[in-house]
Amino acid sequence: MTKYKLEYIWLDGCTPVPNLRGKTQLKDYDSFPTLEQLPLWGFDGSSTQQAEGHSSDCVLKPVAVYPDGARTDGVLVLCEVMLPDGSPHPSNMRATILDDSGAWFGFEQEYFFYKDGRPLGFPATGYPAPQGPYYTGVGYKNVGDVARKIVEEHLDLCLFAGINHEGINAEVAKGQWEFQIFGKGSKKAADEMWMARYLLERLTEKYGVDIQYHCKPLGDTDWNGSGMHANFSTTYLREIGGKAYFEALMAAFKAAKDDHIAVYGPDNHMRLTGKHETAAITGFTYGVADRGASIRVPHSFVKNDYKGYLEDRRPNSQGDPYQIASQILMTIDSVPKEALKSVAA
């Protein structure tokens, strides 16, 4: 028997952005435990904005398990928060997600490294040289001496855990980086994004650096904000698609604009200004290869008879991937596919 270190990880009840929480228990297993072998566990919800002190018990229900490359015999256990009666806690957004195994999501998580109250690499006062050389940059003057160590180690931790991490790059602003997570199935994609965030935040503890996810930490300045662009497709969009369906889909997204913005992350009005590769929050636009549109349409999508994937560029870096994916799927589901097929015929 091996004593495994089980790190139970969950989202707390803080708003508008939940925090990741985690605590460890040790249990003996003959081999790496399966999800079915992992027990329910509890925690004090009064310390996480999820319960009152007079009735503070909350339940952790394991929903996904990953090997932990940072610990010997380590196990990462992603959990949903449940009430004692077994029903989902009100803060449990995963339990309400509209799931579709045929929906593919690719999330592009941008963020800043922060140290001493400013982006990594910024001088103690003022600003570094203007944006230009930092995006996909190389060399000490562009990326410093610690950021790449962190992103490379984070990449390895994600791959060890079996998370479908698809890429990393330095971003437009100094101290800003991005990683991409792709998953087949809306729950799976969102699960892996939250776990990748957890691994990044835990990793930076040993470097004395913080992760700043706020979408516009430098305010109204000539520095890019951070997004979490959502690339999405469904089985229908990949295999059937068509111009009529695409146009109906874009009309549905326009009509549901406010519903999307409501779950695309706080303070998005600071980021979606029409500047710095964003569309204005007050409108809805789409365009081929247009990074200043609400939805970017890849050239490959049009060339393939309007089949493939689309990119919603409005979600921001603090957005909850469970809610983002669910809202995108709700809007997609509002479009009547069969009627459009009859029109096209």
Summarize the structure.
The protein is of the alpha+beta class.
Give the topology, please.
Layout: E1 2-11, E2 20-29, E3 41-44, E4 57-68, E5 74-82, E6 104-115, E7 118-119, H1 140-143, H2 147-161, E8 165-170, E9 176-184, H3 186-203, E10 210-212, E11 228-233, H4 235-239, H5 243-255, H6 257-263, H7 268-271, E12 286-288, E13 295-297, H8 299-303, E14 310-312, H9 321-333, H10 337-344
Parallel strand pairs: 1-5, 12-13
Antiparallel strand pairs: 1-2, 3-4, 4-5, 6-7, 6-9, 6-10, 6-11, 8-9, 11-14, 13-14
Helix pairs in contact: 2-3, 3-9
Describe the structure.
The protein is of the alpha+beta class. 27% of the residues lie in helices and 27% in strands. It contains ten helices and 14 strands. The protein has helices spanning 140-143, 147-161, 186-203, 235-239, 243-255, 257-263, 268-271, 299-303, 321-333, 337-344; strands at 2-11, 20-29, 41-44, 57-68, 74-82, 104-115, 118-119, 165-170, 176-184, 210-212, 228-233, 286-288, 295-297, 310-312. The strands form two sheets. Strands 6, 7, 8, 9, 10, 11, 12, 13 and 14 form a nine-stranded mixed sheet that branches. The longest helix has 18 residues, at 186-203. The radius of gyration is 21 Å and the shape is globular. 41% of the residues are buried. The model has no long low-confidence stretch (mean pLDDT 95).
